[in-house]
Specification:
Blueprint (H helix, E strand, L loop, with lengths): L2 E5 L3 H13 L3 E6 L2 H10 L4 E5 L1 E2 L2 E2 L1 H10 L3 E5 L15 E3 L4 H13 L1
Parallel strand pairs: 1-2, 1-3, 3-6, 6-7
Antiparallel strand pairs: 4-5
Helix pairs in contact: 2-3
């Protein structure tokens, strides 16, 4: 699992996440800053796993998560809200709390690959 899709509406966080993933040996193959582009990318792009911001400019990323579930793509949430959005499935998804350190991202990615 090397190619990662990032859904993040804050450009600085997206760049930081991309750098951190590169340090861990992953490659960001796609990113989307809003729900519309995230849905299109999740539907039409090949990747191994995704990292989803819970809130995209006030819109829930849950529709993207549902699409990833349908495609059988693993993902985790990165959020400052503390938990995955209601309706998320499965409930055992890793949740990365913002702000996070490289070691926390590394642990969350390990959980994701073991799920």
């Amino acid at each position: 699992m090397k190619d990662i899709f990032i859904v993040e509406d804050d450009a600085l966080i997206a760049m930081l996440l991309e750098d951190m993933l590169a340090d861990l040996g992953y490659r960001v193959c796609a990113s989307a800053p809003d729900l519309e582009r995230a849905l299109a990318t999740a539907r039409d792009t090949e990747f191994d796993a995704a990292i989803l911001d819970v809130s995209l400019a006030g819109q829930s990323s849950l529709p993207v998560a549902k699409l990833l579930d349908e495609r059988g793509k693993p993902y985790l949430y990165a959020t400052g809200y503390g938990t995955a959005p209601d309706g998320s499935s499965p409930s055992t998804l890793p949740v990365l709390q913002k702000p996070f350190q490289l070691s926390e991202l590394e642990q969350a990615m390990k959980q994701l690959t073991e799920a």
